[in-house]
Amino acid sequence: MKVLYESVINPQTRHSLGEYYTPDWLAEAIVTEVVTAPLSQRVLDPSCGSGTFLFHAVRHYLGRADEAGTSDVDAIRGVTASVLGVDVHPVAVTFARVTYLLALGRERLSRQDRPAFSVPVYLGDGIQWGQNSTLIDTDALVVSTGDGATLFADELRFPDRVVEDAAQFDALVSDLADSAARPNRPPAEPLLRGVFRRHGIHDADQGTITATYRTMCELHDTGRNHIWGYYVRNLARPIWLARPQNRVDVLVGNPPWLAYRYMPAEMKANFREMSEARGFWAGPSVATHQDLSALYVARAVEQYLKPGGRFSFVMPLAVLSRRQFAGFRTGRWGGPNLGQMDVGFDTPWDLHAVKPSFFPVPAAVVSGVHAGPARALTNSAESWTGRLKGRNPTLAEAFKHITRTDPVTGGPSSSAVRSPYAARFAQGPAWFHASFSWSTATRRAPWAPALDARGSVVTGAAMRRRRGRSCLGTPVPSRASS
Ligand SMILES: C[S@@+](CC[C@H](N)C(=O)[O-])C[C@H]1O[C@@H](n2cnc3c(N)ncnc32)[C@H](O)[C@@H]1O
């Protein structure tokens, strides 16, 4: 999917969104390392791109579910409640949804008793630019429509019960936006009765939705409606995920990498303000090198990760030593206007000596826990070295050629020894040169998916032919009801 995605989106758009796509072996290594109890941890990739991390998190969950003897029905319900993704790019979201279905595998998807589910990959602004959490109300999603054109801003308000189910919420917002834009709009009362019935709106929420609908009509009639439906749908899932009860146990991924000098003017202003508030702004001499990746990781941790939860992200290697990342490295994020948040960093992985290079700039993996006391990120990293073979090796193939060296002892690192592959690779000092063959349903190319007994996969197009619009985020009906 990644390969296909990169061929569909032009390089300029990809650059502006800070897109470098993680190779499968690395995403799998991160997921395996940080998701230690897949059946009981909820995992989010807050900038999921075409879904590489989601694929491996889903496979990791399903592998454990198989070992535990979990039925396919329960495994589908469980995994779709546990592995979630968000991306701001609509095409990325579509690809990630297909990737998710590929990870579930044909066998599970074609079962007669397959439960209804929707693929939990959402369009959304993961960083919530400029929001600083002001939209989180106690019991509703509230969007202020102030655009500077009117003296008083109106609110679009959606009760929690309505926001809870992503697919239903999207359908409701589209329905309201389409109705508000109808040329000869019928009176609100009868029209909304139909909307409430179609979307199963609770009696107690109908007054709020009616007021919101009237505001949408007003926005439309005064020529200010263009983006609200889209905007509301984009914001809803990240805000819902940020509620304390919905936060996740693990964050994984590869945030957008984008230097300040390449940001558009409005993003620059927001970025600077949000970086300063967290003590990340390192001053004018390195301003042009300040990078979105640090702010993105910090925002993801502060918004979406439970206290005590773990995170692991691919970042530019510069994060380990360069001045523009000094504030991030302290692990004490915040300031007078924001409050303090402490994270404890683990030993990072330095990947610059893994060849051939997989990104245009060297990379590291930065992990830690959302808990105090703060433990700073150090330059003393576990070093990964080796030359990989093949275009998209699996983790097992990659680990045949990678040496992981502990920063203190200079020997094999303890996490390599802890790794689930360690036993397979342990051959005395040459632990990294195992020679066995290990097959998995990892994607080598989107048009030639590998097969295995449980998760035999089909192409996205074939999947869509079979399941209608299932990969586009609409609920997948159960076989019984289709
Ligand atoms: C470096 S790519 C990583 C993609 C994927 N996690 C991977 O490693 O293959 C960064 C992704 O961040 C997304 N992105 C950029 N800004 C975002 C935002 N504000 N909210 C959500 N996603 C965003 C881009 O669309 C892109 O897919």
Automatic annotation (TrEMBL):
Record carries keyword Chloroplast: no
One protein family per Pfam: N6_Mtase
Gene Ontology molecular function: methyltransferase activity
Keywords: Methyltransferase, Restriction system, Transferase
Top-level lineage group: Bacteria
Domain DNA methylase adenine-specific: 12-64
GO BP terms in the entry: methylation
Protein name: N-6 DNA methylase
Organism whose genome encodes this protein: Blastococcus brunescens
